[in-house]
Design a protein that fits this description.
With 516 residues, this protein is of the alpha/beta class. 34% of the residues lie in helices and 23% in strands. It is globular and about 75 Å long. The N and C termini lie far apart (55 Å).
Amino acid sequence: MSENKAKTPILEMFNISKTFPGVKALQNVQLTVYPGEIHSLMGENGAGKSTLMKVLSGAYQADAGGEIRIDGQAVTINNPIDAKEYGIAVIYQELSLSPNLTVAENIYMGRELKKGLMIDRRSMELGCVDVLEKLGASFGPTTRVADLSIAERQLVEISRAIHANARILVMDEPTTALSSRETDMMFALIKKLKSEGLAIIYISHRMNEIYELSDRVSVMRDGTYVGQLSREELSSERLVKMMVGRDISGFYTKDHDAKGSRGKVIFEARRLRDDKAVKECDFALHQGEVLCIAGLVGSGRTELARLIFGADQKTGGKMLIDGKEINIRDPRQALDAGIVYLTEDRKAQGVFLDMSVHDNLNLIVCSRDARKGGILDRTKAENRSRSAIKNLAIRVASPRSEVGKLSGGNQQKVLLSRLLETEPKVLILDEPTRGVDVGAKSEIYKIIDDLVQSGIGIIVISSELPEVVGIADRVLVMRDGIIGGEVGGPTGMEITQENIMHFATGANVEAEEKRI
């Protein structure tokens, strides 16, 4: 902070407001960013982060009365071209590249070099070699973007911003689709750009990323500026309280009595396998229990869930519901047996983004509404969707609103509501809070707790160990396609991150081998 006080801010935003018809999206928001700093912007979905960045990028025009300064000078940003001239570049979560063009053509897009009336591709290719080398790209300027990975495409976006002399770089959830290794490489690049004086505004819901990268954090809530924390002041308790207006003690909801409410065994897997990612798994799920499945990436967690749901075919083993063997060959048979699965990729495999909330909620059970002659009872469907919206507190203007226009947390609740309409016995939730803000996470935990109290058995697959520790009654830990250990429940072993990682990494196996 003392170092920053000696500098002139590269960006200052004062009293920024933005009104849409019937909605005050921003109300007198402040933001100050210094050169050579990583300034994180946090808040729930709908807090106003994206709206503020769209004002900065020229995509939106702020209401009268606010002011934006670059290097201490007041500026007017009427459109994205103005923003680029002031050195502002935004890399959105949905990348804006043209896959059919080369890296060089994407970097120069809108600034193409010409020789006469023709585009001078050769000069463009030579002109972006230096920036690609500087950023450590493993590909060249003639590579087609369609042939690059997500991480490499993000590097093209960053190269384009640097090549256009960007001085303020906004990064919106840049690691969402990256592997752990790719994320580490991205962090190294971000830190390098910071050391060279670039100002980076970093938007993320992931606390670990905020801790690792941030010099300062500004927090927004309900379209207003709440305050900021320096690196030394950062803590999950303070951030959560600023974002949602309450203490972290109420974040994880577990009102049910894990021992008292645990009922009979409702689902069993015996030697279940696919001979690829899953190798003979045995476990039981009790009524009224939250059973978490943890493990490192590639351990077989999702593959096990897909076997249970019939999305993939098992090669051996069997499954039982209420003690009776069931043969599930496809998801329809799983639904008929009382098993539902919330996929980890809700956008590609879950909700239909271009359909309404109403249609998404009624998709699976619309056949129940058929009257004689096959005519649908539309009133019944309307009542169902309105009830679901109320029960799960889905924030939506109307049941006819498109799901694609909702926040990630509300999309997840729409998908969960649709599954619950089938009245399941077993609910499998694969990364249920991925990509949703901290407030929506808390709401989803409350929903899980309520469902458990109603007698449903819930399996939660999660990569976030604090989440597992916070909501689990019992944890199965997978490693290399097998269940390598169990924590909590009858084991008597406390559910902690250390105990889970003990089994996930195989440390217990190594210890046993050394003992022998």
